[in-house]
């Protein structure tokens, strides 16, 4: 495994969902939003990395995708920690 570049912000979970996970799911945005119990607008904001993955949403994502909430919580925390340590607004 390659070492992580500490000068590069970790990927926001919404980016991973937008680019890889949801396209592979075969579901469209309204179906995903409904399955997660959120509005299409909230889903759009998450996928655009304007909204964080909350613990509640991480649980819902984990149930929908079958991988548990931990991945999503860790990804969001890594993203938030990097942004905070580099004095960037979330």
In short:
The chain is mostly helical. It has one domain: 434 Repressor (Amino-terminal Domain) (Orthogonal Bundle).
Description:
- The longest helix has 16 residues, at 70-85.
- The mean pLDDT is 93.
- α2 (29-36) packs across α3.
- With 90 residues, this protein is mainly α.
- The protein is built from 5 helices and no strands.
- The protein has a single domain, classed as lambda repressor-like DNA-binding domains (434 Repressor (Amino-terminal Domain)).
- Going by helix content, strand content and strand pairing, the class is mainly alpha
How large is the count of helical segments?
5
* Number of DSSP strand runs: 0
In which range does the helix fraction lie?
A: 55-70%
Shape: globular
CATH architecture: Orthogonal Bundle
Question: Residue-averaged pLDDT, rounded?
Answer: 93
Q: List SSEs in N-to-C order.
A: HHHHH
CATH topology: 434 Repressor (Amino-terminal Domain)
Query: Uncertain runs with pLDDT below 50, 5 residues or more?
Result: none
Q: Termini, distance in Å? A: 28 Å
- Output the radius of gyration: 13 Å
Strand content: under 5%
Please name the fourth-level CATH homologous superfamily: lambda repressor-like DNA-binding domains
Quaternary organization: single chain
